[in-house]
Each structure stands twice: as structure tokens, then as C-alpha cells.
Design goal:
alpha+beta; 6-stranded antiparallel sheet; 4-stranded antiparallel sheet; elongated
Length: 314
């Protein structure tokens, strides 16, 4: 449908027009309704020219040409987040939850299932692509209805992670964050060494307010630095370790002369189908009967282990 608006308060006509047609108004009056517009080639066939309606509405904007796209009937709901439902009886099986999300996004793989803590909340199944792009799928825990989905980067938490960890620049931004953390750690250590309060704590924490501005600024930097150096160094150290975890972990094992614990693996048995998620959850619940499920991480490869996060009541 095409909506053509005039430049001032006039009538608006909503028309369906064939591709390539030109709408021309040859009137020379100040109240001319339309100016010359050439319609763009639409992506789908259009109907014959048919006047649908005429409405009266003031407009202050300039001429606009708006074409409403026809939504694909197979497209999954995007940026639609319905996370609260009405309890309707028993919960559906966890394997069914994963199967529903997999059917909705057949090209993605399940990465994580978040268990709702309240009965009116929905399951959140995070699906991942081969490029490590994530999409949250919300599923009604009682009837299996998909109540919505949202690309993870478009959520508030995802946006904050992208800003804080990746600087909106992917792996390169993450490396930059790691380097900056290392520089901050170096500044903290060198500043701690250069602090002039080691001989006299009173002199180290003194701010000479009546001195010239340069000395006041120096004292503020000196006192503020020594007060915050522990916290800033801790933040810089842990953040740098998170970015460069593999080389840091290797270095720590070499320094302590220890070996890392082997990663848990699954033994693939020929001709035997993998256990369903609900059977694995029963085993986990029997191991920790007083704990409740929090998050589930399905195995991405046949030899990978199935991970379950459980929490104890406080």
C-alpha cells in the first residue's frame, strides 16, 4: 500500500498503483494535492489502480512516500518479548521445549535454557548461530507456545555486554579492552611504587588546598590514586584475565607447577541414541535432591558433556 501526503494540510489519498506509473498534478493552484512522484518498483505484484479512501488530516511534514512491506508468513516473531503467562497446569517436558525452539530456528543450535523461577514466567532458550550470534526464544512452559523472540544484542543486557566487553567492535574490541586493562594495571602498580607517602603517611594523604592549582591537582591525584589503587588494580587484573584467559591460565599452571583438570567428556556408543534431556535432569536431581535447576547447557558435540547449573535454597 502506498501513502502519498501533501506538503501542507490537504486531503490524503491511499492508492494501490501499478509499477512504473507516474502520478502528476498539473494544477497551478497553491492547494495542489500532489506533486510529481515516480513510484519505485515494488517487490511483489500490485493490483490495478483503485482508490480506497479519502481522509482529511493536517500534515506539517514534506512529501512522503511510504510502502508497507508484506510480512513473510514463515518469519519468526522478532523483538517481541512476552515473558509472563498464566499458569495452566503441568509443565511440558524440557526436551519438548528444546524441540520447539529448534523447529522455530532450524539453522541455529540450542546454547542455553533458562529455567523460570516463578510459575508465571516463561522458558528462555538461547539459540546460537555458527557466527556466535545469539537469539532468545520465549516459550510458554504449559502449552509450548512461542511467545516471542529477540536477538540477544537487542536486549538491554546484551547491549551492555557489547559495550562493556566488545566496545561494539567484536573480537577486536574485546582485545582492545584487554590491552587497556593491562595498561591500567601497569599504571596502578607503578603509581603505588611512586607514591610519596611510604616514608610519611601524613604527608602522603595531605592535600595542600592553599597551594597553587598545580600542587592541589597533584595532591588530589596522589591521594585519589592511593585510595583507589587496590580496587582499580583488581578490576584491571581480573578483566585482563577474562580477555586473555588461555595464556594467563597456562602461565598460572606453569608457575604453580600443576596440571589442569581434564574436561568432562561423553563416550559415544555406536547404535545407542543419546539420552533425552529429561532423563539427564532426573539423574542430576537425584544427585542433588535439595537443589533446583537454574540453567541448562546442552551438549554441542556428541562427545561434549551436558552441563546443568543448580542452586540451593538460601
Amino acid at each position: 500500500m502506498l501513502l502519498i501526503t501533501p506538503a501542507r494540510s490537504e486531503k490524503v489519498r491511499v492508492l494501490d498503483v501499478k509499477p512504473g506509473h507516474r502520478i502528476t498534478d498539473k494544477g497551478e493552484s497553491d492547494r495542489q494535492l500532489f506533486r510529481q512522484l515516480t513510484l519505485a518498483q515494488p517487490s511483489a505484484p500490485t493490483k490495478k489502480i483503485q482508490q480506497l479512501s479519502e481522509i482529511e488530516r493536517p500534515f506539517r511534514s514534506a512529501q512522503k512516500l511510504v510502502q508497507s512491506p508484506t510480512p513473510s508468513p514463515q518469519a519468526a516473531p522478532e523483538v517481541l518479548e512476552v515473558t509472563q503467562v498464566s499458569p495452566q497446569g503441568d509443565l511440558i517436558a524440557m526436551q519438548q521445549v528444546v524441540d520447539i525452539a529448534q523447529k522455530r530456528y532450524p539453522d541455529l543450535k540450542p546454547h542455553r535454557i533458562t529455567i523460570p523461577e516463578q510459575p508465571e514466567r516463561v522458558y528462555t532458550v538461547m539459540m546460537t548461530s555458527s557466527k556466535d550470534e545469539y537469539t532468545d526464544v520465549y516459550i510458554n512452559p504449559y502449552n509450548g507456545e512461542v511467545t516471542g523472540s529477540r536477538p540477544w544484542k537487542q536486549s538491554l543486557y546484551g547491549w551492555l555486554i557489547e559495550a562493556h566487553v566488545h566496545l561494539f567492535a567484536g573480537d577486536i574490541g574485546m582485545q582492545v579492552v584487554g590491552v587497556c586493562g593491562g595498561i591500567l594495571l601497569l599504571l596502578g602498580v607503578t603509581g603505588l611504587i611512586l607514591w610519596n607517602g611510604w616514608r610519611s603517611l601524613k604527608h602522603g594523604f595531605k592535600i595542600r588546598w592553599n597551594s597553587p592549582k598545580q600542587l592541589v591537582n597533584y595532591d588530589l591525584h596522589k591521594v585519589g590514586g592511593i585510595v583507589s589503587v587496590v580496587l582499580l588494580s583488581l578490576i584491571a587484573f581480573t578483566g585482563t584475565m577474562m580477555v586473555f584467559w588461555t595464556p594467563v591460565e597456562t602461565a598460572l599452571y606453569q608457575i604453580t607447577n600443576t596440571q589442569p583438570a581434564p574436561e568432562p567428556k561423553s563416550t559415544v556408543v555406536a547404535g545407542v541414541a543419546p539420552m533425552e534431556i529429561d532423563a539427564l535432569l532426573e539423574k542430576a536431581q537425584a544427585t542433588l535432591p535439595n537443589a533446583k535447576f537454574f540453567k541448562i547447557f546442552p551438549a554441542k558435540k556428541p562427545e561434549d558433556a551436558f552441563r546443568i547449573w543448580m542452586e540451593f535454597p538460601q
